[in-house]
Amino acid sequence: KINSPKGRDMKKLIMLLFAVILVFGMVGTASAIPYTDTYDAGHYYMDPWGANSSVAWTFDITGTDSWDPDAQEITSASVTLNFSDDGGWFDWFEFAELDVGTNIFTWEVDAGDVNFTITSLMSLNESGMVNASLSATWGDFYFDSATLFAEGTETGSANAAAAPVPEPSTMLLMGTGLLGLVAYGRKRYHKQA
After folding, report:
1. pTM of this structure
2. Average pLDDT, 10 consecutive residues per value, the chain (193 residues)
């Protein structure tokens, strides 16, 4: 029964749970903004013993993707490289090194795609650009393309001061206060009835 002590406790628990869900629902989550930039290497032949031992480029998300460092922040990024086989003698033993910002990756090269997660995002967050270079360290192969995939969030407007965002503890305090007012109002209403 609802009017029994057990029923009233259950109603209070349900109201408290609803208030907590409401408070944390009001805090909300920011949606991710995708950015990409592709470097087309044009089927570039790489040979560690020749003139084509390395290639360098810059990923830039400021142009086509409308990157604004004052209003947006990169939260994650990865690079996908695409390779083709040259059909030479050293196809079973080819190694490369990728430098992206302060990240360095070394691996055995196979035809197709290879993915790397970038852990240092400082350069992207400062300017929307990051330098990259690829070096053939053993064996020869074709480098076709490199694509940077980044996700960012809005942090404010470049032309106006960012609106203050309430902390979750402040929202919880406000929600608890509202819940107390509702409980007090219900108690007064039931006394009058």
Report:
1. 0.64
2. 59 68 56 87 90 93 74 90 78 86 90 88 86 92 94 65 55 74 69 62
User: CA-to-CA distance for 32 and 54, rounded, in angstroms?
Assistant: 34
Q: Which secondary structure element, helix H or strand E, spans residue 85, and what is its range?
A: none
Backbone conformation region of residue 188, classed left if phi is above 0, alpha if psi is from -120 to 50, else beta: alpha
Give the span between the Cα atoms of 71 and 156, in whole angstroms.
Answer: 5
Between CA 165 and CA 140 the distance in angstroms is: 53
The residues that bridge with 44 in the sheet, in sequence order, are: 143
| Alpha carbon distance 73, 97 (integer Å) | 28
Q: In what order do the strands lie in the sheet with 112-118?
A: 33-46, 141-154, 72-84, 112-118
Angstrom distance (rounded) from CA 168 to CA 174 = 10
Locate 8 and state its tokens: 């009233």
User: Would you give the end-to-end CA distance of the chain in angstroms?
Assistant: 19
| Nearest to 80, CA basis, from 116, 29, 35, 131 | 116
